[in-house]
Design goal:
Length: about 200
């Protein structure tokens, strides 16, 4: 296993697939001694370029299959998940910015912990991550400074969010989660076996 591998972790905070893969991805990266670069992105900017569609605009059969597959993956992985949570779809820009602020001030480990809290808030706890008060609570629950939510509204954080989104577009990331190793994209939590193999090479 290489100790100098870097994984760029592109995701949207409201993505159920990112939630389903997050703990496994964190464990794989840690076992490989890999460096994770946390990259929240705005899928609303990525989809028009990549040909993706927001959930509500997808064909009915695709929407129906998504619910079946989410339930299937949840059972297989032993992870709780509400396939139709109370607060979804949900605006996730503020959550993305909070994760970035945590990453900037507290480092990757704290940012990954914040990610886990945000994902679980949507898909397990049915909390509204579009509500600033919920984000404030999640920051504190993660043992982080209450200042992070305020800092997340800074110009520096916004610029980083925009840069990550543009970076994703430039390297042809088109969905979440995407794990990028040495320029190679692995799309979807169901590709984590390949991520693990790539880290061993």
């Amino acid at each position: 296993m290489s100790i100098d591998k870097t994984i760029d972790y592109y995701f949207a905070p409201q993505s159920p697939w990112t939630y389903l893969g997050h703990s496994r991805f964190a464990a794989i990266a840690a076992a490989a001694g890999a460096t994770v670069r946390v990259r929240p992105i705005d899928l609303g900017s990525v989809f028009p370029v990549s040909g993706g569609l927001p959930l509500g605009k997808r064909a009915p059969q695709r929407q129906a299959y998504r619910l079946v597959d989410l339930a299937r993956c949840s059972r297989h992985l032993g992870l709780p998940l509400n396939t139709k949570p109370k607060f979804f779809p949900v605006a996730s820009d503020d959550a993305a910015r909070v994760i970035i602020a945590v990453d900037m001030h507290d480092g990757t480990e704290a940012a990954m912990r914040m990610c886990a809290a945000v994902f679980a808030a949507v898909w397990v706890q049915e909390r509204n991550i579009g509500d600033p008060k919920v984000l404030d609570s999640l920051v504190v629950e993660c043992g982080l400074s209450p200042k992070r939510a305020e800092q997340s509204q800074s110009q520096a954080v916004q610029e980083r969010y925009e840069a990550y989104t543009q970076e994703a577009i430039d390297i042809q990331v088109f969905g979440a989660p995407s794990y990028v190793i040495d320029g190679e994209i692995f799309w979807g939590q169901d590709r984590l076996d390949f991520v693990e193999r790539a880290l061993r090479q």
